[in-house]
Amino acid sequence: EPLTQTGAASKKMTEEFKLALPRSCPLPQVNAGRAYMQMNESEHAVACFRAALEMDPTCAAGLLDLGQLSLKRGETSSALSYFDSAIESSRSFPEMHDSMTCKRVALAHKRALDTLQSSSSSELTTEPDARGMA
């Protein structure tokens, strides 16, 4: 059966991820969550990431992926919280680097949105003449 991004082959592969390592290891859940993210099934992805964190609350990969999913949904504050937790839980430099990079991206995203909202609200309160409309 060919591997595809969507369809039965991917779902079968997702289930196999869950069985790949002992039940005490969160990585099969993280991998399953990532597979669900690629299939745009975010609710299933969240369930897998949360299951990974139930097994190991300091699973940086699960925290990082929940942060990325939160950011994708526009939940910047939640994403930043997950990224901070992932940074604190990192067990290696690459994990920490990924988490810090994602946090920087989320902060830049937040600043851009804040600037956009600020400029939009100031345009709404500016008198028409001040905007070049006489």
TrEMBL record:
GO terms for cellular component: mitochondrial outer membrane. This is Uncharacterized protein. Signal peptide: none annotated. It is found in: Mitochondrion outer membrane. SMART domains: TPR (SM00028). It is a single-pass membrane protein. TPR repeats lie at residues 26-59.
